[in-house]
Amino acid sequence: MKRVFTVLLITALIVSGSMAFAAGQSEAADDGTIVIGHTANNTGIDSYQTTHDTVFRDTVEATDGVEAIILDAKGDVAQQISQIETLIQRNVDVITVWPVNGKAVVPAVKKAFDAGIPVLIVNSLIDESGYQYVSGFAGPDTYAEGENAAKGMIEALSGNGKVVELMGLPGYVTAINRSGGFQDYVKANAPGIEILATEPADWNRAKATQVMENLIVKYGDAIDGVYVADDNIGIGALNALKEAGLAGEIVMTSACMFGEGYDAMEEGYIYGSVFQSPSEDAIKAVQTAIKLANGEEVPFWNYFDTPVVTPKNMDQYERPNF
């Protein structure tokens, strides 16, 4: 192993507070300890990322011979590029990246590749042009999540109707995949369903409410269904539907279930969603990173299960705690 740093999982701020380091570093001799360098997308922006961060830290702390330097890009891709470069300079054993922008981080990932440091992309993919520089991906199959939401919409509308879509952040690969999976499946399997509009909600609940309000003004009673990229957006859209007196009349399907979405499904407002655990997501990331640091061969795709949840089977799943 390379020279390592003893890292206490206590967040400290450096560079004017723009980087969140797992701090308490003290130089140590090469004792075989694996050091994971992790740059998160935007911890705290929603409950999923907060839970992922907590479980990532806890998993590292509970694993003998493994330490971590944990940084947070705060949704700033320039900051994330700088963080990847910092982790290269720190000579960590493996770098895990939850990308802010899948295309913009590719040159920085290539730098890690050129430095001989394996890179694992977690939760959301980078652009395909960067696949040659990474050792794998650990996270959900977001394209399949979009397909599953489409299957639910087709079932709920019996294959006919008009649908609007609220997608995540443009340029973010998870948003692109969830949208693509939904649209491709609908177009291939339900010619009777028309997608009237696809509007970005940027993973932001307040923006989702505003976008849904505008879509109601534009299309009104013509809307039969709403597809949302996750339940956080879904609750925002639902607030607008309730205000317009349309909640429960318009079918909603989602690509990722949150706790409040579980409640909304129980109340009859969401027809179907996908169970994606941030805990499983984080554990899969740490476990796969350790294998790469040890020189083990791993599959490129390291997905975890994301089952479909509907009112018919929701009693088989605990309410998400995020």
Spell out the blueprint of helices and strands.
Blueprint: E1 4-6, E2 11-14, E3 19-22, E4 26-28, E5 34-40, H1 47-61, E6 66-72, H2 77-89, E7 94-97, H3 106-114, E8 119-122, E9 136-139, H4 142-156, E10 161-167, H5 173-189, E11 193-200, H6 205-219, E12 225-228, H7 231-243, E13 251-254, H8 259-266, E14 273-274, H9 278-293, E15 301-303, E16 308-309
Parallel strand pairs: 5-6, 5-7, 7-8, 8-9, 9-15, 10-11, 10-12, 12-13
Antiparallel strand pairs: 1-4, 2-3, 14-16
Structure at a glance:
By secondary structure, the chain is α/β, with parallel strands linked by helices.
Account of the 3D structure:
The chain has 322 residues and is of the alpha/beta class. It has two domains: 165 residues, Rossmann fold; 134 residues, Response regulator (Rossmann fold, 3-Layer(aba) Sandwich). 38% of the residues lie in helices and 22% in strands. The chain has nine helices and 16 strands. The longest helix is centred in the middle third of the chain and has 17 residues.
Which key phrases capture this entry?
322 residues, alpha/beta, Rossmann fold, 2 domains, six-stranded parallel sheet, four-stranded parallel sheet, elongated, disordered N terminus
| Largest β-sheet summary | 6 strands, parallel
The number of helices is 9
> CATH homologous superfamily of the largest domain - what is it?
Response regulator
User: Portion of residues in helices?
Assistant: 25-40%
